[in-house]
Specification:
CATH class of the domain at 8-110: Mainly Beta
Radius of gyration: 59 Å
Helix content: 25-40%
CATH architecture of the domain at 8-110: Sandwich
Distance between the termini: 158 Å
Structural class: alpha+beta
Strand order of the largest sheet: 1-8-7-4-5
CATH topology of the domain at 8-110: Immunoglobulin-like
Keywords: Membrane, Transmembrane, Transmembrane helix
Number of helices: 1
Shape: rod-shaped
Order of helices and strands: EEEEEEEEHEE
Oligomer: single chain
CATH superfamily of the domain at 8-110: Immunoglobulins
Length: about 220
C-alpha cells in the first residue's frame, strides 16, 4: 500500500511507472535499495528523493536525500521478514515551478539468521570432511595391513633360516660324534684283540704264515 502522508512536501502531480526500485543487498537486519528515474520531465529539474520502509513498529523514513542520491540502506529490521519499501522522487522544474512526484513501492525480505542454503552448505562441508577422514582411515588401515603382512613374512623367513641353520648344526654335530665313536670302537677292539707284551706282539697279518730259516721256506 502506498502512503503519501509520510511525504509532507507539496507537489502538483503524481506519476507511477517511470521509477524503478531494486534491492541491492539484504541482510538479517538490513535492506539496501536503489532506484532510477527513467524519464526526467524538464531539463532544469531538481531531483530530491526520500525512501520509506514500513515496519510493524511504524515507518522508517529517510532524510531528504540530496540530488544525485540513488541508494539508501535501512537498519534495525527483523530477520526473515517482508517489508514494503517505497521511494519518492520529487522533480522540481525551475522554469515552470511545477513539482512532480514520482513514486514506486516494492516488497523486500530480510534473510533469516540461519539460511537454508547455509545449513545445506554446512552439511555438505561436514560430509566432505567426514568422507576425507574415512578415506584417510581406510588408506592408513591398508598400509598398516601391508606392513604387518610384510613383517610376518620377514619373521617367518627369519625363523625358517634359524631353524634350518640349527638343523644343519645338529646334523654336523651328530656326524662328528658318530665318526669319533666309530674310531673309538676300532681302537677299543684293536686294543682288546692285541693283548700281549711288546716284544712278543705279532700283528694279525704276520701271524697267518710261518718262516723256516733252515729251509729258507715260507709256509702258509
Amino acid at each position: 500500500m502506498v502512503r503519501f502522508d509520510h511525504f509532507l512536501q507539496p507537489y502538483h502531480k503524481r506519476y507511477l511507472g517511470i521509477l524503478n526500485v531494486h534491492l541491492l543487498e539484504a541482510g538479517t537486519s538490513t535492506l539496501k535499495v536503489s532506484w532510477q528515474l527513467l524519464n526526467v520531465t524538464s531539463a532544469d529539474s531538481l531531483i530530491e528523493s526520500t525512501a520509506i520502509c514500513e515496519t510493524n513498529y511504524g515507518a522508517i523514513v529517510s532524510d531528504k536525500l540530496k540530488p544525485g542520491a540513488s541508494q539508501f540502506q535501512f537498519h534495525h529490521l527483523d530477520s526473515n521478514t517482508d517489508y514494503a519499501v517505497c521511494v519518492y522522487v520529487l522533480e522540481k522544474s525551475a522554469s515552470t515551478n511545477i513539482s512532480l512526484l514520482h513514486y514506486s513501492c516494492q516488497s523486500f525480505k530480510t534473510i533469516p539468521l540461519v539460511r537454508q542454503d547455509s545449513v545445506v552448505a554446512v552439511v555438505i562441508s561436514v560430509g566432505y570432511i567426514m568422507a576425507m577422514i574415512l578415506l584417510g582411515l581406510i588408506g592408513w588401515w591398508k598400509n598398516s595391513y601391508k606392513v604387518r603382512q610384510r613383517k610376518k613374512k620377514e619373521e617367518a623367513l627369519l625363523r625358517f633360516n634359524i631353524d634350518h641353520r640349527n638343523e644343519n648344526s645338529k646334523r654336523q654335530e651328530s656326524g662328528k660324534v658318530s665318526h669319533s665313536f666309530g674310531i673309538g670302537e676300532v681302537v677299543h677292539e684293536y686294543k682288546t684283540s692285541t693283548s700281549c707284551i711288546p716284544m712278543s706282539c705279532v700283528r694279525p697279518e704276520v701271524a697267518a704264515f710261518q718262516y723256516n730259516a733252515q729251509d729258507r721256506e715260507i709256509t702258509f
